[in-house]
Every structure is written in C-alpha cells, then in structure tokens.
Amino acid sequence: MIAEITQHPNFVSFNYNGRRMLYEKITSSIYRGEGVKINALEKELQAQTYTPRYDPEPFIAFCNNKKIESIVLNVTEACNFRCKYCIYSGLYKGERTHSFKSMTLDTALKSLDVLLPHTSDLLVVSFYGGEPLLNFNLIKAVTEYLDKNLKGSSKKLVYSLTTNGSLLARHLDFLIEKEFQIAVSIDGPKALHDSRRVYANSGKSFDDVYSNIELLISKHPEFSKTHLMLMGTYLNESELNSMINFFKNLEESIASIRLNYISTKNIEYLKSQNLNIQPVAFGTFLNLGLSFLNSFLNGNSSKTLENLFVELINNFVYRDRSIAPQTITLLGSCCPGKRRVFINTDGKFYACEKTSGKALLGDMETGIDFQTSNQLIRKITSIRNSVCKDCWAARICKVCLLDLKDENSLSQQALKTSCTAKKNRLLLGLLLFSHLLYNEGVKKWIDTHPV
User: For residue 200, with 0-12 CB atoms within 10 Å meaning exposed, 13-18 middle and 19 or more buried, which class applies?
Assistant: First the structure.
C-alpha cells in the first residue's frame, strides 16, 4: 500500500514498496527512488513558483473546427424497469423522473434535419431512454429516414442502442440488419442483478435479460463479438469481484465489458433503498490493475478489467510533457454541441445525456447556439481555474460536465465533491503506469492502445 503521501501544488509524493515515488507538475515527470533523493527533489520543487491557468480560447478554436460525431436521441422517458439506483428514480435531486413522454417522429426528424449539415462523415446515431425499445417504431422510422436520405452521400452511419435487454429478442432481426452497436445493462450474477434491476411491477428480470443475451450470442456469434457490449453497476467491493467473475465467462463472446461504480452525488437518497454502498478499497483496485498489466505484459488480455484501467494508464502514457506551460489544456472536457449532441423528447439540445436539463444549447427550431456553447466552455474554464490551478494534478486530471453538475446548474462545489476520488484514481494510474514503465511495456501499450 501507499503511505506518507505529501501533496503540494507542484507535486505529489508517497512511499510504495520501500521506494519513494513523486509526480511533479512543472515538467509532468515521474520519479522513483530512495527517500533521501526524492526528499531533496521535493525541497527544490517547494521553492519554485508555478501557477499555470486554463485558457478557454485555444480549446474553443479547436472545437470550432470540429463537426458533430454523435447524436443521441432520447426516444422515450418511459421504462419497464424500476432499478433501485436509477438516476431517474426520483432519488436524485435535480434529475427528471420516469414518465410516459416519448419523442414524436416529427421532433426526431426536425432535430436531425437541423443537425445533419453540421455532422462529420462518420456519424453515430444513438437511441436512449428510459427503455428505448418501448418506442421501437420511432427507432425504425428514424433509421429508415436516415438510410434513405443519406444514401449516396459521403456519410457513414453507425447506429447504437443502450437497453435493459428485456425486449431485445423481439427486435433482434432489425437490430442485426442495421448493424446496431448494442449496449445491454446486466448487473452480474442472478441474485445480485435481481436484487435491484426489477420490472415496474417489482418482478425479477435476470432470466429474461440473460436469455436474450444468450440468444443473440448463439444466433449471431460473429456479430456479438464486434457489436455487443455488456454494462454492470457495482456498489461495493464484493459486487465488483462477483461481476468480474461473472463477466469473465462471457469475454470471448462479446465486444467489450464496462463496469461502473454507482454515482454517489446524492447518496443520502440512495440510502433509503437499503443499498450497501461502500467505496472499493484502493488496494483492491491496485491489485486488480497489477494483475491486468501482468497479463497484458505476458500477451494476454481481459475485457472485464480493460475498461477499469485503460483510461487511468493512458492519462500518463499520453500526458503533455512540455516544460512549465503557462496555459494548460482542458483535459476531459468535450466540445459542447460540437462533437456530441443529446436531444431530449421535446427536441431540446444538450451536450450529452448526462447533462440533460442543464446548460441548454439549442433546439430543433433554431439549431445549436454556438455562442452559448463557447460560453459554456468559458464557464468550465472559470470553474477549473478557481478549483484546480493550484493542484498537483492540474495537467493530468480529466474533468467533464458531469463532474460540474449539481442539482440546478454547473458549480465549483460540485467539482470539489469529486476531487478526492479523482486524485486517488490518478495515484492509482501513476502506480500502474510506473509498473508498465519499469517492466518496459510502454511501447507495447502504445502499439495496442492508440488514442
């Protein structure tokens, strides 16, 4: 385990396995060695003044040259599940709740028509809910409209769907025909899944979801290997381990696996559901990460562990190594309304599905207000300059709009609540990168994990 952590605006250092490690912000360099030598370096760094700032204008210029790469249509707010931790359950302040509102075809086509001239040649069109397959007729009509109207153009369309999996079987032939990327939520073993992913009538759902996944894999094995992603949400260490063991049996049959820790920004409301929410210990993640890297270095891979650690390691593999830049890049920030647009059931435009209801960017009648988009980037920058500029992690920490979202808007306080967790993840990434570095695995990593 790590011990004796020292955090300074210019560096972070700690003991690990009998060595002292240090990351310093000025040159974005990493050191590992004897405590005496690292302590001397700490004193040198403490004596230096380095106060870079985030500058929004280069990022705005970068975004202005981008075209929309992804459009997400919220085709319905209805859902046939009532998952106990769902962000739309009414337990989260500032979020919408389940309703029977659905997008009309007129809203969908008007929205697409106003956005299509601003899209890239490779365009992902995603369908979101609620449970999107409850509005399957709209999904079918939209895909047929796009296929017909973009036929012969330079655009390549990719369709995707995020679903609870319960209705998958009845629409499988269409989804296969249109080559949908399909993301299915399933929380691991039957007992765990059925303890919180339940139907609206409180009935258990695992058997239906898993049988539909098995049907897809058995009938279309090659398709599943490239188009099927499974997603699980864990609440504690025991659940994480259960899910890892569960998904390992499916790794060879599907494209990818994504395990996510529950959002705890409104944890007091989740407690009413008697959910056992406990952060996973740092040491547990470190051991899993080292196991993943050792397998990687030996020529093996794990789809189950891959998505837990790739971004953490890439943070350091691809970090900016320039010396003492006075302005630093907004890592993790999207280009609101430029690369991805979320359309709610009423035809209003937002940066993504996770920020719906906050930071409106336009609508189906007027299109995207790119000045509003630029002002949003400036607001993100202002918040980060207030909260982050004197932090050792300023050059490597990724912050997205979701991290800034509170009950009503975007705020400094919302970002501050996630700072400790973000810095712990960066320390984890630093240790994993160092393991890769000292085992001469960085080149192999770059070859297999390009960005």
Answer: exposed
Query: Which CATH number, 1.20.1440.230, 3.30.70.3340, 3.40.250.10, 3.20.20.70, labels domain 67-280?
Result: 3.20.20.70
* Cis omega (within 30 of 0) for bond into 33: no
Over residues 186-231, the pLDDT tens digits come to 999 999 999 999 999 999 999 999 999 999 999 999 999 999 999 9
User: What is the DSSP-derived secondary structure letter of residue 135?
Assistant: G
Q: What is the helix (H) or strand (E) element at residue 267, kind and residue range?
A: helix 267-270
Distance (Å, rounded) from C-alpha 295 to C-alpha 298? 5
**Do residues 349 and 361 lie in contact, with contact meaning Cβ atoms separated by under 8 Å?**
yes
pLDDT of the residue at 265: 65
How many other CB atoms sit within 10 Å of the CB of residue 207?
A: 11
Dist CA 285 CA 22 (whole Å): 20
Q: What does the DSSP assignment read for 334-375?
A: --BTTTEEEE-TTSEEES-GGGTTSS--EETTTEE-HHHHHH
Residue ranges of the chain with per-residue pLDDT less than 50 = none
Residue from 257, 301, 263, 308 nearest 284 by CA:
308
Q: Is the separation of the CB atoms in 68 and 115 below 8 Å?
A: yes
**CA–CA gap between residue 76 and residue 36 (Å, rounded):** 61
Element holding 59 (H helix, E strand): helix 56-64
